[in-house]
Amino acid sequence: MNKISERNLSDLVERDQDHECSGYGSNNVCVRVVAVADLPTEFGHFKIVAFWNNRDGKDHIAIIKGNVVGATSVPVRIHSECLTGDALGSLRCDCRAQLHASLRRIADEEVGAVLYLRQEGRGIGLMNKIRAYSLQDGGLDTVDANLALGFRDDEREYSVAAHMVNSLDIQSIRLITNNPNKLGQMRELGIDVEGRIPHVMPLTPENADYLRTKAERSGHLIEQADLVLPNSSDQR
User: Which of 61, 56, 6, 70 is nearest to 33 (CA)?
Assistant: First the structure.
């Protein structure tokens, strides 16, 4: 059951004007709420919240349904930026589908949030992501392509997201994810994660290898039945 405080999102801007803290995670990330505005979309009517942070100079945002301030058990999706998928409609990944599905989901809730983090290409950046695409075109999967470029499978970290949750005064969350690493990091950063909401997107011919690699090599929580193309005899 949600417990809503008398404070609302707009109050957080004034509260955070002079905010400084020791930060979250190994990078001592500190964020501030700097602006709140209405955001009508095709998925529903939301509030958009902009955050300053002391780590990377990037503008991270939260897309909010309802008054999350003081609320418990809030459905939260942490979505990492994917220019090729989110903006250009690339079929190589399921990022655009995940973003749209999460916005639809929170639009149907009393309260909810999508945290949009600017960590492109699993944290390796746009230029290196395109380099990884090129290696994938030559036969490597997403994991081996990142490794070949000198990166880990996944370079993302979630201290910005953890501070954003606390800055919004969200008391506990249900994380919309298939990624156990995301669950683990948020808990390690002190967020009360009550549980997980699965977020599996349909398999397509274009993203099949990508999603299978997520499950088989990166440990994402995707059932084997969800890794078979419709009308396919492939029983991998």
Answer: 61
Domains delineated in the chain = 9-119+156-199 (3.40.50.10990), 126-152 (no CATH), 203-236 (no CATH)
Residues designated as active site: 154, 156
Average pLDDT over residues 165-179: 94
| Per-residue pLDDT tens over the stretch 180-227 | 889 999 999 999 999 999 887 778 888 677 778 877 777 777 666 666
Residue 118 to residue 83: CA distance in whole angstroms: 10
Convert the pLDDT of each residue in 119-157 to its tens digit.
Answer: 999 889 999 999 999 999 999 998 999 999 999 988 888
Global pTM value: 0.88
Residues 6+ apart with CB under 8 A from 235: 228
Query: Between these two residues, 234 and 142, which has the higher pLDDT value?
Result: 142
**What residues form DSSP beta bridges with 52?**
32
